From TrEMBL:
Protein name as it appears in the record: Ribosome maturation factor RimP
Function recorded in the entry: Required for maturation of 30S ribosomal subunits.
Annotated InterPro entries: Ribosome_maturation_RimP, RimP_C, RimP_C_sf, RimP_N, RimP_N_sf
Gene: rimP
Organism, as annotated: Pendulispora albinea
Lineage: Bacteria, Pseudomonadati, Myxococcota, Myxococcia, Myxococcales
Keywords: Cytoplasm, Ribosome biogenesis
């Protein structure tokens, strides 16, 4: 039900999340520009604006009210997955190869690491390499509990230099 509404607005569905938070249940629908996954677009190029998110939410809310798939009260949020977007499947790892990511593992590496942060390699046969400085970890995608991109700020300005 969500997919056709998102597509009708020229966007593609990235993820859906239903979770309880301090203010109650929240249904989050993450979207990006149509074709972003296929084009392997950067998070910047795939980002959608607030107006598009609002339009999708306006159409999606009454459709969800009619279908009533969630038996309790919740808040609907539609947004871009952001620069620290989650990586959910092998397709995401392929798309963001060369980017910095943080992986939480189900089982520790032989060195005892349960969290690895480094540059992603291209996945091959269900295994992704993660380069962390001098170390390279080969991680089975089945062993990844959670993963997301890591945003890094550019270098700090040199002392005495001011950007205008």
């Amino acid at each position: 039900m969500i997919l056709p509404i998102v597509s009708a607005h020229g966007a593609e569905l990235v993820d859906i999340e239903l979770k309880t938070e301090q203010q109650g249940w929240v249904l989050r629908v993450y979207v990006e520009k149509l074709g972003s996954a296929e084009k392997r677009a950067t998070t910047r190029d795939a980002a959608v604006n607030l107006e598009l998110c609002a339009q999708i939410a306006r159409d999606l809310s009454p459709a969800l009210d009619v279908a009533d798939p969630i038996p309790h009260h919740y808040h609907l949020e539609v947004s871009s997955p952001g620069v620290e977007r989650p990586l959910r499947n092998e397709r995401d790892f392929v798309r963001f190869a060369g980017e910095k990511a943080r992986l939480k593992l189900k089982t520790a590496t032989p060195e005892g690491q349960k969290v690895i942060t480094g540059t992603l390699g291209e996945p091959k046969e269900g295994v992704v390499s993660v380069v962390d400085g001098p170390r390279t970890y080969d991680v089975s995608l089945d062993n990844v509990a959670a993963a997301r991109l890591v945003f890094e700020f550019g270098p700090a300005p040199k002392p005495g230099k001011h950007s205008r």
